Amino acid sequence: EVQLVESGGGLVQPGGSLRLSCAASGFTFSSYWMSWVRQAPGKGLEWVANIKQDGSEKYYVDSVKGRFTISRDNAKNSLYLQMNSLRAEDTAVYYCAREATMVRGGAFDIWGQGTMVTVSS
Amino acid sequence: SSELTQDPAVSVALGQTVRITCQGDSLRSYYASWYQQKPGQAPVLVIYGKNNRPSGIPDRFSGSSSGNTASLTITGAQAEDEADYYCNSRDSSGNHLVYVFGTGTKVTVL
After folding, report:
1. Please, are residues B3 and B41 in contact by the beta-carbon 8 Å criterion?
2. How far does A31 lie from chain B, in Å, by closest CA?
3. Beta strand pairing status for B9-12 and B105-109?
4. pLDDT tens figures, A40-96
5. Cβ distance A115 to A93 under 8 Å?
6. Burial, A64: exposed, middle or buried (Cβ in 10 Å; 0-12, 13-18, 19+)?
7. Contact with chain B for residue A41, Cβ under 8 A
8. For residues B50 and B65, what is the distance between their CA atoms, to the nearest angstrom?
9. pLDDT digits (tens, 9 = 90+) for B16-32
10. Cβ-based neighbours of A56, under 8 Å, separated by 6 or more
11. Is A32 helix (H, G, I), strand (E, B) or coil?
């Protein structure tokens, strides 16, 4: 079964750090771009970051540039999001998602169940 | 960065047809993909590319595009189609490897 499972969420104080993980199974992880997408409580979806198959290219939404770092370990079939200098507005459910291949405009065809990050004192 | 705008909410009678629209400059260059999200659940891809449905998505879901507007049509809406729907595409305003999501549309089936 194709599956993505996130972990690492929790409660953290403003200015703190957290590292999210996403374990992939059921497909050749190293063949896909991967993304993180978040959703603040009661709000819409927001794309956060993505990373190329070999990790050589990484891109971020402006609001997290310089604070978040996306990475991957293809040997462990895992995706990560290191989040530093966290702010209240980073509070959200964080999903990892697989980017479909050969789709003009892109698409996220597999999603994890999400992990909740709460930034509060 | 680009923006994708959707109507906040639409309603449809059971068995009738509803169209959800998504507007944005990036849609002049890229197809939109569409996601269904039910409360407490992760989004699910329902339409991608020109008009493609992943395996398991009913054929009552279809997509189309014209100019800067993409549309998701549900023909013969069912009670289980009540959900939030989001469009998504690559960002054409700068780096084409990043993405933008629409503002979301809540669909109510009456």
Report:
1. no
2. 16
3. parallel
4. 999 999 999 999 999 999 999 999 999 999 999 999 999 999 999 999 999 999 999
5. yes
6. buried
7. no
8. 8
9. 999 999 999 999 999 99
10. none
11. coil
**Pair A21, A7: CB distance under 8 Å:** yes
Contact A27/B at CB under 8 A: no
Which residues in chain B have their CB less than 8 angstroms from residue A114's CB?
A: 42
Token pair belonging to A17: 């750090």
CA distance B27 to B63: 13
Q: How far is CA A2 from the centre of its chain?
A: 17
Per-residue model confidence as pLDDT tens digits over B53-76? 999 999 999 999 999 999 999 999
CA dihedral A120, A93, B107, B34 (to 10 degrees): 140
- Structure tokens, B43: 């989004």
Q: How many angstroms separate the Cα of A39 from the Cα of each of A86, A94, B16, B57? A: 15, 7, 30, 23
